[in-house]
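ingest -> validate -> predict -> emit
validate: passed (alphabet ok, no gaps, 249 aa)
predict: started
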Amino acid sequence: MASYDLSGKNALVTGSTSGIGKATAMMLADNGARVVVAGRDKERGMAVVDAIRSRGGEAEFIPADLHDAASAKELAHRAEETVGPIDILVNNAGIAAFGPTEDFPEETFDAIMATDVKAPFYLVSELAPAMAARGSGAVVNVSSVAGSIALANSAVYGASKSALNQLTRNWAAEYGRRGVRVNAVSPGPVRTPMSAEAGESVNELVEQTPAGYMAAPEQIAAAITYLASDESSYTQGTILDVDGGRRAV
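emit:
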């Protein structure tokens, strides 16, 4: 894996108690960032913090159940109180549920949109203005190939990630000239608890992917770390496909 100099940077990674978020928190810390690990499960969160500290990194855990504007704003404030100004925000927390449109529960629809769209929106609304005032910062949104291609039984999840892609572009236009870079990664099939819940649809996606296998969380974390670093200083408003080539075919 490439190495980047993130020393002196404070990073907030949502949904970082497992999967892509955990791998990202650890990789950012390995590259020198002080990381706020945020998620619903305190035991898993502290395990990530302990793993980071055992490797010589700096990390703190803040419990967070992101489901509305208030919970997003509270996390932003607590993170800044804990480690200081946030330089890197990784919007990774998300909910996925799959099923036919005609049977899709309204409460599940609302939960997906609240966590996958509303929470990132209000985290950015709280943290990006301060980044802009300092003249630097990076926001990386974790999207999905489902936001760019049509997948059966994925209408709501795909719509939430498509919305996040558009927010990424809009925020780049809004904050880019003030020094805040906003980008997204768009993973394909990744070995995470969420992909396990998707069942056979994930296996079908793997079969359609030129790479021919399911990615490890660290492969997605590597792309996120690049976009969070100054090495991607001229990259703005990009949806970076890290999908094994699925969107290309």
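The longest strand covers residues 180-187.
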